[in-house]
Amino acid sequence: MASVNKVILVGNCGRDPEIRYLPSGQAVANVSVATSTRRKDKNSGESIEDTQWHRVTFYDRLAEIAGEYVKKGQPIYVEGRLKYGKYTDQAGVEKNTVDIIATEMQLLGKREGMGGPGGEEGGGGGYSRPAPASRPAAPAARPAPAAAPSKTGFDDMDDDIPF
Fold it and tell me: Which of 15, 18, 52, 81 yields a CA-CA distance of 20 to 30 A from 74?
């Protein structure tokens, strides 16, 4: 049975990326992304904002791009997968961690004088890691259904059917 581990975040960067290089030369960048939801308190009726912080890790070229273009406070779109881990803190207490390993990133909002891929103003740049060779192609888009079918359903069909 197939399984899916996919996360999509749209939020604001909480800090500038921290970029480092592993001994193998692989670039790694870490950033915090905040996502917020609003709800009304049932008792008081006032709006309550709930903010969640997510640790996002970028690798390779995506890490270098994040280190160059991502800034604190900037809106960002991130796709990736969840990775759970454990570590023991200085007091000897075992703690759990949840990281998003990013595979795609889209800078959102306006580009204020930033250069970059495409050089366009006002849009964000989309970046992703190369897809594995075994990744299936995206399905073709389906044509829109006819506006009003006739009684038989065949009266409005083209005669130029290629098969």
Answer: 81
Domain count, the chain: 1
For residues 68 and 97, give the distance between their C-alpha atoms in angstroms, rounded to a whole number: 26
CATH of the domain at 94: 2.40.50.140
Whether 100 maps to a domain, the answer reads: yes
The structure's pTM equals: 0.62
What phi and psi values does residue 158 have, to the nearest 5 degrees? -70, 150
Segment 5-62, tens digit of pLDDT: 999 999 999 999 989 999 999 999 999 999 999 888 888 888 888 899 999 999 999 9
Supply angle C-alpha 132, 26, 52, rounded to 5.
80
Is residue 61 helix, strand or coil?
A: helix
Determine the structural domain holding residue 82 and report its residue range.
7-40+47-128
Question: For residue 93, what is the DSSP state?
Answer: -
160 inside domain: no
